[in-house]
Fold these 4 entries.
Entry 1:
Amino acid sequence: MNIPFTIDQFLKVFEQYNTTVWPVQILLNLFAVLMIIISFKKVKISDKLNSGILAFFWTWIGVVYHLLFFTGINKAAYVFGALFIIQGILFIYAGVLKGQISFKLTWDLYGIMGAVFIAYALLVYPVFAHFLGQFYPKVPTFGLPCPTTIFTFGMLLQTNRKVPVYILVIPLIWSIIGFSAAVNLAVYEDFGLVIAGIVGTILILIKNKSGKIVAI
């Protein structure tokens, strides 16, 4: 894929975003931790709250990152922004309004893989970026597309009900788009994105079809 910007321009967008929205990054990480906590100790509104937080993440990325920042170097970001906003709406529809997504942390194959993706998105991803020579603020923080997409697949693996297939389409598409850009720009921490996208989608579809827990 032909990338219409340089790695320096790409990292400059991260810098502009991170310095402008600070300290929202802290809030986004706290929201992610809250999702994990209330998936362990569920209350009546846990599932709707978690779906609402995912909707907020995707809408935030679509509006703030893609439309306000990334469009400065890549006009395709208008399309990306629209896709992320649509995904946010889908989480509202499926999870908040229809109650079709139920989160429950488990220790079966799906839950363990989900935990790996969550840990990668929140902990390994920023450490990996640091060792690759990417330093704040010129680094993708949580709440930006790639780590948040990985986190999303991790949470969708932590469910005890069939996940609507349409919820998976845009995250899978982004995992492929993001990986293509990562290869061209040598953003190696994003290689985990395509793994989360493909493996996560396959496991969720298998889980949907079987309706069974696969223990290891």
Entry 2:
Amino acid sequence: MKKDQVQIGQTYNAKITDKVVPVRIDAEHKSGGWHGTNMTTNRKVHIKSAQKLRNKIAPGKATETEKPAKRQPVKKKLSAAERKTMLAKHKADQENVRQRDERKASPKGTTTSEEAMPSSAGKKRTKKKTTDASAKNKKLSLVAAAAQVLAKKNEPMTTKEMVDKVTAAGLWTPGAGKTPHATLYSAILRDMKSKTPRFQKVDRGHFTLAKGA
């Protein structure tokens, strides 16, 4: 920039040391150049020559040292599959919390669902001779007790009816869970997916023993 282009009161980009900063020209310096104010630090500076000055800064215009404002990231719109995955994860988290609370409330530290599962699941079954008395006193799982009730009833029943029957007959004792019929419903559905299902669904919410069970 040339000397005759410099105007008192205007702000220019100026190279101070090794940085380009906005400087306002305040007055001429007695030893040459101009008195100025570094607008970044608000300190007085001596601009010795017009060569130190770059372009004039228009009012309201960003300087070279000013960084543009960061753009806020645009929220990505979730697809139907992503929403479904998030919903499934949320439900799974809620179920984990429910089971944790149920275990804390249970004297045995187990959920109703765990109590309903056969105690010998996943293990090799061994044949063992038992007396009629010991077999009678052996505690049944909710699923086994339900199968026993269905065998005697010989007609379709809902899981709530099964729970009422096994409880009344003393075949099974409710745990800390408040919805054993829902737990039994889930256990029966899992059983129906096994290789040798004991149950079959005959109507909405009604089950019987599978053929050959």
Entry 3:
Amino acid sequence: MTDVDKKGPPRFLFLEFLEPEINGLLSGLRKEFSVSKFDHSIHLTVRGPYSGSIPFTEIEKNQNILDTEPLLIHGAGKFDNRDSYVVYIKVHSEALRKIWWKPDFPIEKFGFNPHITLYKGKDEVLADKILLFLQEEQITLACHQARLAPFASKQGELFAYDEIPIEKHFLTLSNNRNVRADILQRAARLISNHRKSLVGEKY
């Protein structure tokens, strides 16, 4: 455990994806699939909670390890989360494993499965449709630019206590052979068709 200032709410280190096309794709898919608004940008929580402010040397040390290899975003999964279902896309990296530190969820007990949630809701049928959609798309992205940023938790919400400008999300996938350019339109159509099927069930 790092020697940190004990004042203030618990702190975490988030991993943020800095490549605009990756951020744009993941944010776009999450927006299309979500039944409720997410209160945070696309990220992974990789370390924490810390009981106080996180020294810059701690962030720099882990960032240097993270920078040794790209992050591979590939593969979809689903799990039950109490009264809801979660569908996610996986993130693979040995460097990420090296810096992973979540004492409330130790790898020995909970395993190591870094992922980005794209759907969270009570509709299991929709969750299964989204999972199948992601599996068929076989999205494969290599992210070469990511950063660790400190966030603080207060009353169940997360906010950046050291503000760092984040690039605006764009979606430029025409040159990426692993992603069809119309993926967001097809994701939106999946949701629209599902809603229509629900309306049909009422009559």
Entry 4:
Amino acid sequence: MTLKDLKRNLELFKQSITFLKQKKLTPSKKDSKNFTDFQKQQESYHQKSYFNALNSIHEEIENLDKYDEHTILIEKEAQKLTNDNLEKNVQIIANIFDILKEIPEEEQKPRSVKSNTLLFKLPTNVPVEVQAEIQADLLELERCYKSSCHRSAVILCGRLLETALHRKYFDVTNNDILETNPGIGLGTLIAKLSEKGMKFDPGVTQQIHLINQVRIFSVHKKQDTFCPSPNQSQAMILFTLDTLEKLFAQ
């Protein structure tokens, strides 16, 4: 674990709090059972992201590489985090960031890593409305990849592309296609965006085909299960991250 991981989860937790406050929601671990109501599903997702980030903060503080006076102060602040007091949590997050600023820059540098390590960072220019959702999926994608859960990683690539493409369609047309066509596929969505003048790399269609294959094998019983290799999942993750960056740069 590194301080960089801790900062990322603190930012994710802060974004989840912002969403809950904007929607005037209270944190809840209950899942929405209304699978046809996108708004309810979105709210449920952000509430789960809130608790996932909170748990990750505690886990990463427990496993920090250095145990010095700064770490002790961070642990004491983190112990004050609550499940439901959003305003209090915002202040505690600010306090932890203040402590992190006091740590010498040299101590914040992570250990050397392999040159092929993937960088799971939030793309530039992502609209604030979907930042928390995309950041949560990127964090989960990173965990799946590092844990060799390659099928799950590929499925998350599909979810990231869906979120980004749906948002991009809204930006281009000012229409929420999830309201009129909640079951629209990725291929159809790309075709509609192409009609609006957006350009995609030739490999996007093949990428979506592979993602759909993994999804199909994950929900239907098949004689031969498709399990992506580490190289396949890495290639798909790289392509997904590149596509996200290009989507929001347009």
